[in-house]
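Suppose a colleague, Dr. K., hands you the sequence of a protein chain of 404 amino acids and asks what its three-dimensional shape might be. Before reaching for any lab equipment, you can write down a predicted structure in token form. Begin with the sequence itself:
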Amino acid sequence: MNTPVVYLDNNATTRVAPEVLSAMLPFFSELYGNPSSMHSFGGQVGKDMAQARESLAGLLGCGADEIIFTSCGTEADNTAIRSALAANPDKRHIVTTRVEHPAILSLCKFLERSQGYRVTYLGVDAEGRLDMREVEQSLTPDTAIVSIMWANNETGVLFPIAEIARLAKSRGIIMHTDAVQAVGKVSINLAELDVDMLSLSGHKLHAPKGVGALYVRRKLPFRPFLIGGHQERGRRAGTENTTGVIALGAAARSAQAHIEAENIAVRALRDRLENALLDIVPDSRLNGHKEDRLPNTSNISFKYVEGEAILLLLDQLGIAASSGSACTSGSLEPSHVLRAMGVPFTYAHGSIRFSLSRFTTPEEVDYVIRSVPGIIETLRKISPYKQGAAEPLSPLDSKPPCGC
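The predicted structure, expressed as tokens, is then:
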């Protein structure tokens, strides 16, 4: 299978950065000891894992002892919510939003259906933002946990986590945030926030798949999700993914060193792509707030066409993008995020998420700008929703950027 010419699906997963790959390779062949073993060969791996834990803590602004390594963001999310409920058995209410990742929404629906918990799903406005008055009104003495994402994976919209966490703390409620899309893209300092738990995933910040982490505030009542061995100070049983942990530490160091400069460069490329497409393609619209969002994410809807068809034609040109969350791909239903925002049906079905990274180049962005208008016009000519569309604005045989 050929590697895509232009990869703009970084909210689904990122390439492993060269410095991250270099850091993890020795732990496959040379430093393969079990960090829980008594001998020095395994003990060295344990020391390297401790350094990785310190690096991740440095990126998050927390203590190394507040980090629990997991297999992924979904495990971290499940652990956080289940721990909060187990630690507060007399409380039966959960507050979240209608635009969360399936890792949160599916669990909440399961808890409603099978265990009788009551869940409040907060709405968002047309720009994907929360109403803080609704957040406050949703909290009750029966609320065990508030779980609200830091950044939406489809639109990139940022939620006011600091304000929400302060509000939850004032009511004595545990606050969890799914920060899978935010870590490494926006600055986070947990020492200055009232967040109790935070989830992240390595493959969203240029580490490999199969490793994540959960921040748990020191002294917070905690109940482990996986029971077994003593790993992670008894908070997460199972032999650690040592190579993944080392990689996550390296990715954290890289993100901390370059986050500000990368944000400027990536944001500029995103705006270049977004502004050009919105200007060139008629009946197109941006989904989400223009300013309060991740610097790498642009979700654009094209009226009268199907997102799946757009993706197929983009793929033929070597362009990888997404119609929403990779964890909900395969569904023909419009995005639950866009439905919650009230995006009209004729637009919602034609939404494409472009998510860039520090490896995205200006040449690649220009190639996408040349390619997309013709694809949209071609599809509109055969769309059942719109007849008589004009000739394509540009041919589908656009040439890829030089050197790809």
